Each structure stands twice: as structure tokens, then as C-alpha cells.
Amino acid sequence: MLRRFSSFLPVVRNACELPALSHGFKAVADVEIDFNNRELLKKYVGIRDHLSREPGTRGKLIEALSEVLSAIKAAPETSDYRRAVEATCQYRLKVCQENESDAAVEEVLDAHLEELIKECREEARLVPHVVGNKPWEVPEDYTVPVVDYQDASAVLEPKK
């Protein structure tokens, strides 16, 4: 049976070959991309394929930021994690409220709205885990281990 199958392979290979394959390929470097056109840039980066653009993206970002802000209230006010998350979310909310267009918000935040929404969803899922583990509760007698710096040449070159 294997002998019969091997005799069949050249027929299949010849039938599947595409003679104009090299003529139809165009390198990405040959494409002129206007980096000021955010929609076209998203197409080439692949954001559209993975995060899907929906109408009202700026509004969805505001909702996601508000969700993170409400979730982070479970952490103590004194924790650095809560302060960092609140500061980031409040800054992004301020940018969203002061700019009417999606492109302006993306320009100021230097990120795609779809990516920011995804980041907010991930942060909202992370907050309960951080709050549950309470990394801010460190025993008073705990000391941080300090490793002395050792020059790489001393390790890599054997002493003579």
C-alpha cells in the first residue's frame, strides 16, 4: 500500500503547484503606510483582527476604566498597588473626557483604544487575586535579602 501511495504523490504535487506564486507576492516593505492614519496602521499591525473595532470604543474604555476603579477599592488605601492603579485609571479617564475623538485619545495615550480596553479587563480580573494574597501585609521582622554585586569578569575568568 505504501508503494502505491508513493507513486501517487508526484501526481498530487504537480496538481497543487501554483505557477504564478512568485508573481502574486508583494513584500510588506513595498507598501506605503501613512503612520498618521491610525485606522490603516491598525489594519497592518493586526489590531482589527484580534481586538475587533466596535462603535463607541472610547465609551467602552471609560466603562472598563470605571470597572477597574470600582474593583480596586477592595485594596487598602495605603497600598502602592491601589495608588498606582487609581492614578493610571484616573489619568486615562481624564484624557477620555477631555478629547472627543478616538484618534485624539489614542494620540495622547500613545496606545490603541482596543488594547487599553483589553488591558483594563485583565487588570479587573487581576485585582481580586492581588487583594486575596495581600502583598502589602509584610511581617515587621521581614528583611529583604540583598545580593552583593559581583563583577561578571570575576565569575567568567578563572583566577590564576
UniProtKB/TrEMBL annotation:
Membrane topology, as annotated: Peripheral membrane protein
Source organism per UniProt: Gonium pectorale
GO cellular component: mitochondrial inner membrane
Protein location: Mitochondrion inner membrane
PANTHER family named in the record: NADH DEHYDROGENASE [UBIQUINONE] 1 ALPHA SUBCOMPLEX SUBUNIT 5 (PTHR12653:SF0), NADH-UBIQUINONE OXIDOREDUCTASE 13 KD-B SUBUNIT (PTHR12653)
Family: Belongs to the complex I NDUFA5 subunit family.
Pfam families: ETC_C1_NDUFA5 (PF04716)
Record's protein name: NADH dehydrogenase [ubiquinone] 1 alpha subcomplex subunit 5
Sorted UniProt keywords: Electron transport, Membrane, Mitochondrion, Mitochondrion inner membrane, Respiratory chain, Transport
Principal location: mitochondrion
GO biological process per UniProt: respiratory electron transport chain
